[in-house]
């Protein structure tokens, strides 16, 4: 099953250029040379074996290597490499991209490009520690690992894993359900969920080095915050998981939160300047995920200058309905939960706080103006005009407010129109 549609190459030089889109398999400890460029396309797989400092597969590319596909890394039976082993498996005159690692022997394989021309693999684990739970059973297991091992969950039952795994080897859910009940239960390694399997977070502030979900798998973050290290997931992949979670969490890989659904909240994310990601249950409007929808978020929303432009937007810049842009629909999402300067909306003791009424003062005024935009939208009124020539920055006019006021005057929408009727569609409405 692993090796469907693969070409087996045993030391031959390959044609120029080589495009790996179906899958390539190097022989045991083979060194293969590509005379020209090498393209490992998304969806393509290159399988290589690693064992000792001298015994591993190598690909020498005389031209450029573009690595957007998957590198399937395995250790031959009985030949687990020592912890921390490094393997320079691909060399090229230049290198673009970084392959996804399919870590078939649970070696905790991490990949990095050295000097723009060498792909180096480093092992951070010494194989799997398998926990199998049969159908219908739930097993709690907090036993710490005595060695650097990858937690592998098998079977259709539920494994409840708490305690502390201080090592960075991570976890793979091959089947059934994994419930994570302590922040340190998985260490700080990657989490991989295979097709049909699920994982649920019951502990806050879980830190992962990477997150990978196969088709048909899901991750329920519940009320918890999840941190993913730099390079552990792209924003595009993360958005895709969040949108899938809303649209089709059964057949597509998705991040969901049942608690968010129960509380009529959603899931927000923030990408830090270093590329690390934070994902958490959130109210639309909470751009910085601090548990409040307040002036800080409104300023964020305005400062990006993306309102009603066709430019790609993120949660941080006001795309709260995940349709890729920031416009009046996002303002409606924000208003549907009320502007909150009276305290947080996040749960205090395991339940989600009732969203407060809009507060007083400036927020109230802003809320009224933004509400006008919502009513305008509901009434099929004029959309706020495009403003391409305004300079960006904090001094920029509050476009939603100004446009809403103008729009409200034109349409004369009654103040009593309930905002909820104008509520925008859920994630991916424009997809
Ligand atoms: Ca906030
Ligand atoms: Ca949007």
How would you explain this protein's 3D organization?
The chain has three domains: 7-122, no CATH class; 128-282, no CATH class; 295-422, no CATH class. Helix content is 16%, strand content 27%. The chain has helices at residues 235-247, 258-262, 295-303, 328-336, 361-378, 399-411; strands at residues 7-9, 18-20, 24-26, 31-34, 38-40, 45-49, 58-61, 64-67, 70-74, 86-91, 94-96, 100-103, 110-114, 118-122, 128-132, 138-141, 150-154, 158-161, 171-173, 177-180, 191-193, 198-201, 206-208, 211-213, 218-220, 225-228, 254-256, 266-271, 277-282. A six-stranded parallel beta sheet has the order 16-18-20-22-25-27. A five-stranded parallel beta sheet has the order 1-3-6-9-12, with no helix packed on it. The protein binds calcium ion (2 copies). One calcium ion is lined by residues 319, 321, 323, 325-327, 329-330.
Care to give the gist of this entry?
With 431 residues, this protein is of the alpha/beta class. It is 16% helix and 27% strand. The model is unreliable at 1-5, 349-365 and 376-431 (pLDDT under 50).
